[in-house]
Amino acid sequence: MVYTLLLWRHPNIHYRRAVVRLSRCELLSMLKSLSIEASPVEEAIGSADLLTFESRPLTDRELSFLAGHSCAVLISEKNGAMLHPLSAQSGDLFPEDLPEILKYKGKTNPSFTRMMLNTALSLSSFAHESNVTVLDPLSGRGTTLFCALCMGANAVGLETDHRDLKETSDYFSRYLKTARIKFSCQSFSSTVGKMGIPGKRFTFIPPGNSAVTGESRTMTLYEGDTSLCGQLLRKHPVHLLAADLPYGIQHAPQNGRKPETFSAFLNRVLPSWKLSLRPGAAIALSFNTLTLKSDDVRAALQDAGFSVCEAPEFTVLAHQVEQAVIRDVVFAHNPL
User: Fold this and answer.
1) Whole-angstrom distance, CA of residue 59 vs CA of residue 218
2) pLDDT in tens, 170-184
3) Can you say whether the dihedral through the CA atoms of 29, 96, 153, 292 is positive or negative?
4) Angstrom distance (rounded) from CA 68 to CA 151
5) CA Rg, the chain, in Å?
6) CB of 200 within 8 A of CB of 186?
7) Which of 33, 56, 110, 166 has its CA 20 to 30 Å from the CA of residue 137?
């Protein structure tokens, strides 16, 4: 059978030019996780972009999985020039407004974040498990965490900025209360060496799920340096790691008070990030190629023991975000 995905026409003109390339990589990864060897073809109808592929007939569950694609507006069966829309609905646990409502300067596009998560999940050994955990070791104000919650995952964030963590926590509390979702919020402290790392954990039942089925989810926030991930999560390693590295020199990573280059930062934190991951987990890192070269990111990941995705569809993902930012994303596996 032939299927077609109608892609969302993104309002950011720079990002729109890259949507097809990013979406094709994401779709290829999702199809491979379903054991479908297909080569999606780019098409256009007027100003609408589509991705078309041929495969065996897809089940309702598989269509629902593909409907969670970051830019899929509609999935159709294609017969010649005729498109037959399908009623496939994603299995998202929250509406798409959760990662969208909170606005702030420098916010990462939630569609791009979801592309990172979908692709990384599909590349991992846990693509179709029902209860995975996503770590953002540079969580900022939580866009990646909220995207992870939407797709049904648990979320863990680590951030040094107390104000960012408070805004993330306050926003999520208001969101859950407004949506009338029952939740609990526990403050705690985790000991790493002689340091006490403050934490906060939300536990809740997502909309449409019953407490009887045990389908609760959690979002955990830690206030501390990203290099602590391995020690904090050694007893409960995660299935995915997704991070959007700082883009500009003004956001250069710090090692205490000592400025360090982006390459030095990666070499310092990747061993700890790796310790926080389960065998078979996947990692997705996005970054500004004007301050950090793609080859350097790949080399740092390989040096840390990751297996970097080098297939052609993973090497054409660089795209302009704004005048001073040309963003790329690299994916890698944590070997079994």
Assistant:
1) 30
2) 999 999 999 999 999
3) positive
4) 8
5) 20
6) yes
7) 33
pLDDT for position 276? 97
pTM for the structure as a whole: 0.94
The whole-angstrom separation of Cα 1 and Cα 261 is 50
Q: What is the DSSP secondary-structure string of 142-173?
A: SHHHHHHHHTT-EEEEEES-HHHHHHHHHHHH
Q: Structure tokens of 310? A: 């080098």
What percent of the chain is predicted at pLDDT more than 70?
94
Task: State in Å, rounded, how far the first CA of the chain is from the last one.
Answer: 34
Residue type, 76: S
Within the chain, residue ranges assigned H as helices are 13-33, 60-67, 110-123, 143-150, 162-178, 229-232, 262-275, 294-303
Q: From CA 32, how far away is CA 98, in angstroms rounded?
A: 29
Token pair of 153, please? 């995952």
Q: Which domains does the chain have, with CATH numbers?
A: 2-85 (3.30.70.1510), 110-333 (3.40.50.150)
One-letter amino acid at 307 equals S
Q: Check residue 250 and give its pLDDT.
A: 45
Of 135, 131, 163, 144, nearest in space to 98 by CA: 144
